[in-house]
Amino acid sequence: MTVGEPLSPGMAKWLLRFGAVITGGLALSDLYVVTHVDPNDIGFVRIIRAMATTALISYDYMTSLKKVEYGTDEYETAKSQIPQLFVRFEETPLGAASWAQVHKAVLHDGRTVAVKVQHPKVRSQCANDVILMELLVQLVSWMFPEFSFAWLVDEAKKNMPLELDFLKEGQNTEKVADMLKHFQFLKVPKIHWELSTSRVLTMEFMEGGQVNDREYMKKNGIDVNKISQNLGKMYSEMIFVNGFVHCDPHPGNVLVRKSTRTNKTEIILLDHGLYQNLTEEFRLDYCRLWHSLIRTDMKGIEMYSRRLGAGDLYPLFACMLTARSWGSITKGIDQTPVSETEDVEIRVNAAKYLPRINELLNKVPRQMLLLLKTNDLLRGIETSLQTRANATSFINMSRCCVRALSRHKRDKCQSWYGKLKISMSETLDLWQINLYEALLWIKASLLSTWIAEILGYRHPRLQ
Q: pTM above the 0.90 mark?
């Protein structure tokens, strides 16, 4: 190549990849200095971030499968993968991931369906993404030995193939629908197997507003507290009772609506490609840990955190799980509402203890990583709905913990008398939880009444 000669597409791609690795690694190095100064105040850091973002976006633009132009041979090849069984197929995607797009279609019998289509070259693209991630991780590990992100690559290698198998996604969809069928508020799309393959998934078409859209809920008369409560019920049941967990509850995958038939609020759960199957031992220890956290049992918190791999970092582990400060945990996470001061404290400590957090993520079982992701996504929804300070989420979790642990004890017990005692103890615990919930409701109602009276007294209506 001579000076002034334009780069070939292949050479450009490799240079962009190399740039992404170098600048991405430098961007990650910002984490190292975050405890000393605000990185946003450093001009060099801002430049590096801009370079990293530009390189990564450029690389994605050149290689992304979403950028296949309509009408080209490549697009027609992708389109040919879709069964020609639709009266109308809308080419404008309703939603898109890096390897799949969801479209709306109408069948010959008049049914409206959602069609999820995977591009034929997606597997090679995902393999390239993993290689790029490995290079970044190795670079960061070389520059900063105290940071090891091997767990991130391991999880990507394990989970990407699962999300690429649409037949498996269909099976997950049916499994969770059956598992949670007692929740009348939950709606899961039905799968049309006769129109589905490993690269094309056809399912029932469902509409609703995103779960974090407060304006949509206000417009449609949907109670945000009820949504938050039902979301907590649903995920507590998945995690503590069944050990089969939908691990991608971002707002695009969780919709809400008012049923036109019953006028009741419903939650629609979409995108069932990524699930975590918890082992029995892990599920029970995780259940006991949350039970201890809710009951402020400090010995139990330490014991079960250690059993889950946290070691001496169990206080940090408890804070990561609950997104609460250690002070709030020792007082009772259901007793003290989340304050702005505590949120600031958590963010400062997250930066301060970043090497310890990374150490912890390398120590805990791999099952824990997707649960941490799920917890963070659910808290993000609660924050958007402004229901995070609500104690009902912990109450629902407590119920599920009691039920799961009691069921395990009954399964292990051999005598009918022992099983009876366990059932009676479970009933008593659940009644206590119900009583506590009722007291909280009365307290909230009285407080609202008192506030209304005070405001009414200070600001009397004009006659």
A: no
